[in-house]
Amino acid sequence: MIPLKDNIPAQRVSFVNSALIALNVAVFIYLLLHSGRHDSLLLARYSLIPAKITSGVASHVSLAQRTTPFFSYMFLHGSWLHLLGNMWSLWIFGDNVEDRLGHFRYLLFYLLCGVAAACLHVLLNLGSRLPTVGASGAIAGVMGAYFVLYPRARVLTFIPLLLIFPVIEIPAYFFLGAWFLAQLANAFFGFFNSTKALAGIAWWAHVGGFVAGMVLLRLVGGESREGR
Questions:
Q1: What is the pTM of this model?
Q2: Which DSSP string do the residues of 133-144 spell out, in sequence order?
Q3: What is the DSSP string of the chain?
Q4: Cα dihedral across residues 76, 79, 82, 83: positive or negative
Q5: Domains of the chain, start order
Q6: Quick one: pLDDT at residue 153?
C-alpha cells in the first residue's frame, strides 16, 4: 500500500517538517556529488553500525564516534528510492503531528523517535557490522503519533495488484495498523530466519520507532483526536 495523501489539513505551516525533508535531500545530494572514497568514509563514520557500539571494536572508537551515529544515521539514505519513499511518508503524516505538538516539541519528538528506533535495532543486532541508514525509524515514530492523534482520518491509498491499480480511501487506524503489523512480522521472520532473507532492512527500527512515537507522544503532551 502506498499512501498518496490524507484528509486532515494542517492549521499552520509545518516549518520543522519541511526543514527535515530539505535537510535529508541536501545531505543525499551532497553525498551523491562527493561519491567515492570520501563518501565511503562519511557513511562508515555516520551510519549506525552496531559492532562499533557493542563489540570489541568499540574499544577503539571514541565516545563521540559511538554516540553521533544514533542521530546522524537518520539523515543518510542509500538511494533515491529510499530517500523519496521516506520523505513522502514524512510529508503526508509529519505536518499534522507538528501541527499538534508545535515546532520545537515536534523536532524533539522526531529526534527521540529516531534514537529510540536506533537503540532497539542495536540491541537486537549486537555485533552486526552492517551499516544502517535512513529516516524510517524516526518517521515510524511520526506514524505512531498520527495513529494515536488521528485514528479516524482517511488516507488515500494506492494498492498495486496484478492487473488493476485501485486508489481507495482507508481509515488511518487501518492503514497504519496494517503497516505496523507488517513491520513486526518481517522483524520476527528476519530475527528467527537463519538465512537472513530480509537482512538489509532495519525492521526492528521501524517497530521501535512506531512504538516510541505512541509512547513519547504522551510524554510531550499529545492526545487522541477521536472526533476526526
A1: 0.89
A2: --SHHHHHHHHH
A3: -EEEEES---SS--HHHHHHHHHHHHHHHHHHHTTTHHHHHHHHHHSB-HHHHHSGGGGGS-HHHHHTHHHHGGG--SSHHHHHHHHHHHHHHHHHHHHHH-HHHHHHHHHHHHHHHHHHHHHTSTT----B--SHHHHHHHHHHHHHH-TT-EEEEE---SS---EEEEEHHHHHHHHHHHHHHHHHHHHH-TT-TTTTS-HHHHHHHHHHHHHHHHHTT----TT-
A4: positive
A5: 2-219 (1.20.1540.10)
A6: 96
